[in-house]
Amino acid sequence: MLCEDEIVSRFLATSLFVSPEVVAYIKEQDDPGLIDRIIAGTPEGTVVVSPDCIPALKKVRDGTRFLADPVCEVLAGMENSAESIRDFEEYITYFRNRFTRLSTFMRGRIQPVPIEALARTGRYQEEEVSFIGMVSNVRSTANGNKMVEVEDPTGTMRVLFNKSREGFSEAEKILPDEVIGVRGKLSQDGTIFFANTLVRPDIPLSNAPYRSERPGRAVLISDIHVGSDTFLEDEWHRFADWISGQEDIGYLVIAGDLVDGIGIYPGQEKELVIKNIYQQYAALGEMLSALPERLTIVISPGNHDVVRGAEPQPAIPPAFRIGYPANCVWVENPALVSLQGVRVLIYHGRSFDDMIGTIPGASYNRPAEIMEEMLKRRHLAPIFGMRTPIAPGKKDPLIIDPVPEVLFTGHVHISGIKRYRGVLMINAGTWQSQTAFQKQMNTVPTPAQAVVLDLQSLETEIVDFLTPGS
């Protein structure tokens, strides 16, 4: 198998630089003659070999977008679509669906065999082979290597990722319950698989985001926390005055934690200025009613809201929507909405807690990095059984499919914007100043910010309302 240094050296020998995306593609294909074919097909005058130079990696959209009327359409996570929790045996169906669907994203890049087939013949001790499985256990060995137990519907296999091999940093990020592909060789006794390559479902290198054909802008915010004594009311009024004067803004998207809630954590009642849950939602309804009627307001819940904690979370119940304007669109968490054809995947982000606690070097201060890890795994909450409760269903609604133009989250109260393989990742911060708990954790939020998304260019602008006159 070619390593990164060897791939780069082969291109440099012909006076060509090569992009990381192309290097990753060549490693996945594991075809010794591929580099020569790419170099031969590279147009004259090229300095950097990018995915655009390779026909298989040319940026492509997923087809024509047939726009709905109205131009805001709920594609997934529409109200009343979340299934109720009936029986623990439904988790079997749920995880089978997760495995099957995530496996399909990798089958075009590797040719997997069932795990049980590995032990039938000794050929896989001499030649490389690939398989796909769900991670059931991850641990570090005494030598600092990574031992991962992987299972598919036919069996289980222990996979060793050697710390001396290239790409070990990605193996260190392997999470319980994610679905991965591995390429390597079987040990002589057939009990351990020595991995050479780790493959994830990932966003296709050829992904090209759709852009609206007509002008339009959307504002993205999250974590308002109405009812808390740290809710920034003055800053919200500045925001309301500002958006009222922005005639070209047609959408407001809110990614959960609309109110601070009741009984979310011990001692919360001491930090509430509105102690009645109905009154918290009524106060938010008044705030949204004061905004322009031209806005389509998309509202998704979070872990502080008055719905079950298990994901997917249902939309806010009608009993708590009294007094809200008619231009509100109530969706679940997560939800996929189309704004003039631009698909925005809304996810509050409870799984940040699990992923940050598991991935080495991860931090609440860099939420976009965790969102990138979600995209690599094509899953919003890959870890099961930790702080993010997951409700079973016939299908796993937390799988990222189709690929959105925008992944929009909240929860961590820290804004962040980044792009990964054509997907724009946005975390919009909060409308709550630093809480007592955040002070204990030395977490500094980025409050009173709104992210403005241009639907034609997919460019963003952060507008800060923390300072008067800003």
Automatic annotation (TrEMBL):
Q: Name one GO biological process term.
A: DNA strand elongation involved in DNA replication
The record lists the catalysed reaction(s) as: DNA(n) + a 2'-deoxyribonucleoside 5'-triphosphate = DNA(n+1) + diphosphate; Exonucleolytic cleavage in the 3'- to 5'-direction to yield nucleoside 5'-phosphates
What keywords is this UniProt entry annotated with?
DNA replication, DNA-binding, DNA-directed DNA polymerase, Exonuclease, Hydrolase, Multifunctional enzyme, Nuclease, Nucleotidyltransferase, Transferase
Q: Name one GO cellular component term.
A: DNA polymerase complex
Give the InterPro entries listed for this entry.
DNA_pol_a/d/e_bsu, DNA_pol_delta/II_ssu, Metallo-depent_PP-like, NA-bd_OB-fold, NA-bd_OB_tRNA, Pol2_small_arc
DNA polymerase alpha/delta/epsilon subunit B domain boundaries: 219-411
Please provide, alphabetically and separated by semicolons, the GO molecular function terms listed in this UniProt record.
Answer: DNA binding; DNA-directed DNA polymerase activity; single-stranded DNA 3'-5' DNA exonuclease activity
**UniProt key word Nuclease:** yes
The OB domain sits at 129-189
- EC no. given is 2.7.7.7, 3.1.11.1
Give the UniProt family note.
Belongs to the DNA polymerase delta/II small subunit family.
Subunit composition? Answer: Heterodimer of a large subunit and a small subunit.
According to its UniProt entry, what is the function of this protein? Possesses two activities: a DNA synthesis (polymerase) and an exonucleolytic activity that degrades single-stranded DNA in the 3' to 5' direction. Has a template-primer preference which is characteristic of a replicative DNA polymerase.
The family database entries (HAMAP family) matched by this protein are listed as:
DNApol_II_A_arch (MF_00325)
Name of this chain's protein: DNA polymerase II small subunit
Which species does the entry assign this protein to?
A: Methanofollis liminatans DSM 4140
Q: Give the organism's phylogenetic lineage.
A: Archaea, Methanobacteriati, Methanobacteriota, Stenosarchaea group, Methanomicrobia
